[in-house]
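A note from the maintainers: we've had questions about how concatenated examples are separated. There is no special marker in the raw files; a new sequence line simply starts the next protein. For clarity in this README we add a label.
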Amino acid sequence: MKCPVAEFLWKALTIIERDMRQVQQMLYLATKLKQSPNEIRRVTPQIRMLQYQVEGASESWVSEVVRQTNNLEMIADFESNPNWDTVRYHAEYIEHLARSYLSQLRSDERLACRICGLVQEDMPWGEDQRSPSFGFCSCCGAVFGNEDDTLESAREFRQEWLRRGANWLDPDLKPPDWNCEAQLRNVPSAFRMRPTNHIWTRRPTSVQA
């Protein structure tokens, strides 16, 4: 029988991957609209649909996309002869927002611990992702270059850390509102945990099945 907590965590870890796909599609549509503003009535509803499918972005990012999409909808619905320069302006704004969020998602992966997802001050594996610092994560305690050098070793260390309760190596650095599920979303996509039949003896207190 599959562990419900492992299933739940895997679902959380896939949010960043889904966001990347949705925002990449949004970028494509915004660029297309900028180049062909007369497509406004066809493209705008697609951008609207995508914005509701992005789950991990900040509220300010979402509100800006919503605002620009609202402007496009107003032009499409109420202007018989739209100003194409205005349409291009709003499309370019959405394009900028999409590029900004994609950049954030990609850079977060290089800064995050491969075991627990804690974002570090410096890249644990360097710019090239091949040069481990051999520092350690203050959350899960992994040594960069030892426990996280392969997919299997990273998964094994993560499962053991979760089994023991997802305790912080340095409790003084643990945020008061820390959420294990949210942090695990930062784990680089190549090192994420898939559902297993593993049964935990103790669950992290901040993770609810």
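[label: protein 2]
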Amino acid sequence: MLTRVPKPNCRSDRNSTEVRGITICLSVVTLALASSATARSFAQSSETTPREEFQQYVTQLQANPSDNALRTKIIQLALTLDPKPAVPEDAAVDAAKGKTIFASASSPDELKAAAAAFAQASQIAPWVPDNYYNEGLALEKVKQYDDAIRDLNFYLLAAPGASDTADVRGKIEGIKYEMSKAASEAQDNELLARKYGAGADPLDLLYRYGGAFSDLRIDGLGNTHGVSLKISTVRDGAAMYDELMVCDLDVMGLHQIRLTDLNGSGNIPFVIRTSRGQANFVMNYDQSLHGDMEIILSPAANTTSSIRTSLSELYRERAREAYYAKFVRSSVGSRQFLGVPETVVLDNRGFGVIVLFDTSALDHIDDGDWRALEPSLVVFSSYSAGGNTHPCSGTSDLGIIDGARYHVEYESDGTWNIFSGSANGGTCP
């Protein structure tokens, strides 16, 4: 007997299947949503906030202070943060230190110390504008112009719209002008040092440099002689006096005129005689109300060819020669320390005197009183006997300089050195 199998309840089965299907579908959807939420949570945990990124940059900059591109990025990012980053106490302390030093600074070293304190404050808090401004001011005063401009530009970047923006931009342009002027002066000083330095010929230093020089046409035929006009200080016993020294370099003739013989205005004709012939000259001079003197030197046969100068310029030019001479020992000039002040020594070799200048006067060759450019001491380096010039030997006393006594010791080759103490005697006074 066959047993009938009951027909399944399709609705029930169908419903059961749909419920599972729905259950399975919901499980998949739930799993997907859960996975998405987990991924979003992970992404959020791995993202860096602007403030965290800012702090990372600051840490990196402290390890590499010269990274100006990173410093710029920090300043720009700080401007977007709200609230603004707090200033660490150490930065505030360094800034206050810099202000205190700057307020009482009286030397370049103190100004550099102030700048260093502001720089340290900017290292800790590189987004603070005032530290850049203050450091820029200090660096400008010690003529570190590139760094000053850099810091003032950082100030403008960190303080957009500041009320003094126009003033700071004007200051930057002013510093750029000072930079160009300093570069020009450095180039001039380099040329002067080369002109008066160890590469120059001794006769050029003695006659051509340190005074006024020109190739003068001595006649109507176009013949020329190189002629120089210089100031020379000589000693006569205990007295010192100044002379105008005229030298014809072509015939090596020399003529000297004491300044004490020149008063008011006038002219002096003279002849430079040598075994090769003679050269006739005339010097016109005119002393102004201010004590300076205009001088015109020309060949007697051709007064249109001349050297035009002044007494003040001749004094300044000799001082430049002393200041820029770089010779060691006595070749033509040297720089030596005598006691506390530095004294520049100019040896007019062949002319027989060692001339010493205090640098307090030479530091103001162009902007100071030209009458202050007198040497402080003069001592002989050679002497005349039997119609010939001989180098000194032994020692010569220089007297008291800054509270200490000094003397010159002469070598057999005509050179000399300066030492402390008294002279032991020699052939020169």
